[in-house]
Amino acid sequence: MTVRHHVSDDLLVSYAAGSLAEGWSIAVATHLALCPSCRRRLNVAECIGGDLLETIAEDSPLEDSWASVRSRLQQQQQKMSAEPTPRKTKPAGHRDGLPEPLRSYVGGDVDSLAWRPLGRGAYHIPIKTADAETKVRLLRIPAGKPVPEHGHSGRELTLVLCGSFVDGDVVFARGDIGDVDASLTHQPVATPDTDCICLAVTDAPLKFRSWIVRAMQPFLGI
Amino acid sequence: MGRKTEADQTPDMVALLRAVGARQDLVAFETLFRHFAPRVKAYMARRGGDSHLAEELMQETMIAVWNKADKFDPSRGTVSTWIFTIARNLRIDAFRRENRPDFDPNDPAFVPDDIAPADAELDARGEAEQLHHAIAALPEEQAALLKLSFFEDQSHSAIAARLNIPLGTVKSRLRLAFDKLRATLAHSGDVS
Questions:
Q1: What pLDDT is stored for residue A80 in this prediction?
Q2: B81 in contact with A at a CB cutoff of 8 Å?
Q3: Do A47 and B127 touch (CB under 8 A)?
Q4: I want to staple A142 with a disulfide (CB 3.0 to 4.6 A). Which of A87, A121, B49, B66 is the partner?
Q5: DSSP chain B
Q6: Helix and strand tally (H, E) in chain A?
Q7: pLDDT tens for the 222 residues of chain A, in order
Q8: CB of A179 within 8 Å of any CB in chain B?
């Protein structure tokens, strides 16, 4: 398997810098699990972070800090044996299934998911994150069918996990990431061989304070 | 290779970190601490401005360095890079209260590296130095943007608003900088 559509520089640098919101980061990290060449790009970005850290400040004596850290290390060593560190258990996976970190976010692999119907044979699973910036969901598009209409007003990332879809004359298969902004009108279609499972991350829709505007949103198309 | 490099004048950070990992060498750790603690503290302060919190996060980072020293892999980059990633993750936990989604190399669905690292540790050192010179040679506007991206924890749209330039310009400048830096390094991922 060779990934052909990769994560963009701006997302990769933000992810390396630690400033990318959680929703986008799920797509980036899951793509990285499937794409060794992007992991090498990530490594370059993190090395930039390391180099910038060297130049951020001069040497300065921190005597109190050192004394404090040294005593914390000594205390830690005394109680080390008392507390074994708890290990988080992750849902079991397999080679062609959902990679981490996505699998833990949805709580299982492709064959054990609680899909919710979206209509026209499509299903989805909304994924909760702590960021207010994105909306994240796993989509299952029936073989040969178009991706159902879903309103978004900004950027949309689509990471293919199973099957494939065609957008225009471009094929997106496992590991490929599609990255479009709202100005593009497109109609991706799942290829006829098998259902297509993909992760979709979008900018959260505009939220309006006024209940009148909220009530009008569907009619205003915003 | 008679050239004296900057790296030769500083203590061998890899050897110090190995001493901490292998035998919990407190003397080696103190040298690491005296070099990195002020830098990590400055990094933390850039985000919050609160010096008590920056101090606490710096101490947590350095204690994590002590605890995880045996997991450091010199083929993946310098000690500074490794400490940067630890500090970054702690900063996300502290300020954003979000998870940082990360891949897991032990996951059965993980696609392993396709290029075997040949003498990777030596490469990593040479590359770190090349990278350092390449960053120093970047045009000021690109270097400033990289620093904002890495230190201030702001989205690219927030940076665009702050500098009063279009988001597209932020992205294209970052891309130019990143392309240039990537080109200075060997086998650094070849995608467009």
A1: 62
A2: yes
A3: yes
A4: A121
A5: -----HHHHS--HHHHHHHHHHH--HHHHHHHHHHHHHHHHHHHHHHH--HHHHHHHHHHHHHHHHHHGGG--GGG--HHHHHHHHHHHHHHHHHH--------TTSTT----SS--SSHHHHHHHHHHHHHHHHHTS-HHHHHHHHHHHHS---HHHHHHHHTS-HHHHHHHHHHHHHHHHHTSSSS----
A6: 6, 9
A7: 689 999 999 999 999 999 999 999 999 999 999 999 999 999 999 999 999 999 898 778 788 999 999 999 988 877 665 555 556 678 888 999 999 999 999 999 988 899 999 888 899 999 999 988 899 999 999 999 987 655 556 888 999 999 999 988 899 999 999 998 876 677 789 999 999 999 999 986 654 445 555 565 555 444
A8: no
CATH topology of domain B1-101: Rna Polymerase Sigma Factor; Chain: A (1.10.1740)
| Three-class secondary structure of residue A185 per DSSP | coil
Count the neighbouring beta carbons within 10 Å of the beta carbon of residue A113.
17
- CA dihedral (A47, A53, A56, A57) positive or negative: negative
Residues of chain B positioned with their CB less than 8 A from the CB of A39: 103, 113, 189
CATH of domain B138-192: 1.10.10.10
pLDDT number for residue B120: 63
Interchain CB contact of A99 with B (< 8 Å): yes
CB of A182 closer than 8 Å to CB of A198:
no
Q: Is A220 in CB contact (< 8 Å) with chain B?
A: no
Architecture of domain A1-86+98-222: Sandwich (2.60)
This prediction's pTM: 0.88
Which residue ranges make up each domain of chain B? 1-101, 138-192
Q: A24 contacts in B (CB within 8 Å)?
A: none
Please provide the size of chain A in residues.
222
Complex-level ipTM: 0.89
The residue extents of the domains of chain A are 1-86+98-222
